[in-house]
Design a protein that fits this description.
The complex is a heterodimer. By secondary structure, chain A is mostly helical. Chain A is built from 14 helices and no strands. Chain A is globular. Chain B is built from 19 helices and 15 strands. In chain B, helix 4 crosses helix 18 and helix 13 packs across helix 15. Chain A: Keywords: Cell membrane, Membrane, Sugar transport, Transmembrane, Transmembrane helix, Transport.
Chain lengths: ~280, ~525
Amino acid sequence: MKLALRHVLVLAVCAFAVFPILFVVSAAINPLGTLASTDLLPSGASLANFAHLLTSDSYPFGRWFFNSVFIALVSSFASLLLSMFAAYAFSRMRFAGRRVGLLALLLIQMFPQFLAIVTIFMIFTRVTELYPAFGFNTVWGLLLLYLGGALGVNTWLMKGFLDTVPKELDEAATVDGATHAQIFWRVIMPLVTPILAVTALLAFIGTMSEFLMANVFLRDPESKTLAVGMYGMIAGDHRNANFGMFAAATLLTAIPTVSVFLWLQKYIVSGLTSGAVKG
Amino acid sequence: MALDVRREAAETARSPRPRRQITTAFVVSRIAVLAVAAAILLYAVPPLVAAGSWVSLGLLGAASAAIAYLYLTRRFVPAKYLVPGTVFLIAFQVFPVLYTVTTAFTNFGDGHRGDKAAAITAIETGSVRQTPGSPEYALTAALRGDRLVFLLVDPATKQVRVGDSSGLAPLAGARVGITGKVLSAPGLRVLKAPEAAARGQEITALAVPTGDGVIKANGLSRAVEGKAALLYDAGCDCVRGDGGPWTADESQGYFVNAGGEHLAQGWQVNVGLDNFARVLTNPTISGYFAGVLGWNLVFALASVLGTFALGMAVALALHHPRMRGTRVYRIVLILPYAMPAFAMLLVWRDMFNRDFGLINQLLGADIDWLGQVGTARLGVILVNLWLGFPYMFLVTTGALQAIPRELTEAAAIDGATPWKAFRRVTLPLLLVALTPLLISSFAYNFNNFNAIALTTDGGPFPADSPQVGGTDLLITYTFRLAFGAGGAQFGFAAAISVFIFTIVAVISAVAFRRTRRQEEIYA
């Protein structure tokens, strides 16, 4: 009886979780492809929306997809490494300014960063003049910008996890003559795989969805990311007509995230918690 | 330069090091790091030299030297790990944020973008009126090298002259077409119509000085001689002309006349704490501010508590030894998290659509969900619940597994009801683990721009004040102030962001202080 109640509750929440997605699937395979003609359950099935999307001249979806996945992969990998370095220093070493540094990281994050967008715009106007390869409309420039946020987001989570890794391990390695770099790469890194997986996933999802900065930064249709491009797809007059295509694009966009999730799944639950549980 | 650095690296690597063994990895990594640094220098220096930015060059040199020293010396070990991330942090977060904060003390915004000299130029060239009886020249835009020049054909004499910002000069050897436009000229490249159109702004901005006035483009193929109706007089620090004299007011950054009016173009000045005072004392703004702040707190709290309650409820329901199908349930429950959030926000917006939205279809209703304040607020909280609860479900699931089952079993043996066991044992243990995440989730949702901007965009807006909508958060309100249609007010927006920052920081700091975890971190 009690088990049955549990199932009912979970099933209800599952229904809540799934119905918008069902709507998207239905819109994606709706042959008419408009918002007005879309129901929760599809009236027909066709891949016309997908075909339109992939062959469209005005919306270079393949290019956007590549841009997004490339930026998300490189930036989550790089920011992972940067924040892991910092977390190692904060967790294992004692130095002047450690406490201030940790607090500062927390505080900087709380400033609504995109309000600095005017300044960022001015900085990158100059950068575009000097180094066009890292200026507006380039993935590299946007990557640099995203790396600015690398430390703030993940360092605390990683430091919390690192604190749970027994110090005796690195002490033993030091006695054996290992340098701090060797300890970092050979001892620490293999032990923190779960938290690496979690932060990688969080960073990946965050970057895939990032809209504001990218919207200011990428103007050229070829350089857009999925978030910017797809927003334009149903902006203004196209809202109704392009909805099917938009839904198809949404489903395709979920593929990389779901793949990363499935790939890292076994680490996720343990990683999310061990970081938080033991302080 | 690169060679020097490498040789230095090699020498350092070879020098004997007592106590520590030198591995190949050690040597290779040092060389690699320095090679990368040298490559960056080689790439970065020439454009700076070409542009003559010696300050930037000095900074770059100093930073590179400091970094090279840092990675060659054996001291400063923590810095070796902190510097890579910090460099990016300073360049793309700390510096922009600090710069933004300094603009909070200025009137930077539309009408106050540049300095005073730029404002004077803009006022003078903007006030040019055609001199009565002056000829209308046929204009052709051309390039000399890469500088824009005007080729002007006098309609009466057919004489061709070339003009740029330094003045007019006769031009010989130009071929003039039937329309009066110049087809070609020696030493110049005549711009074709689309090319000229692409440089429209430059063409409008170019003013060719003549003896007592300037020649300006009127469209892309005509130019007229005119005189500035407003002229700056340095003697009285004022602008003379229509409705003037307009005296410079350094406290406002405007030229004002005796009647208290000002010219549209102003310049950036320091206004001290005016922007902050405006937030607190201006009755319309402070009225909005309190209202928006109140709703903002409700939104952030409801988002955090709602997602946490729902996520925890499901996690608890699944956390039972005899529960079947947890694997499948877990994957289904995670799906909202895996979908791209920006796209799903837009989808939700359309599901709430009055005319063809799914919600009205399913309910058979005709409710303008996002058009009324109450339902719109409920709507965005619901959307945020959908987006956020899988994360809470994930973290609670993990935290539950870390709580020893013996504890709840012991409570049951002692006769506690399941509710009591949850309330007294499970929940406190969960909160110890999850409070930091809840606080950062609060800080995130407090500034959750996307959740509002992509669904209601702050609406619905009352008819009498199009500035603030029913679901506006401080952040969306500020964004509209800074970049919205009403003209950019960067200085004022920066002041509000300082307020936002203070509010979030104080709330989070108080919450953190109350958790035991914080004390452990600083121990």
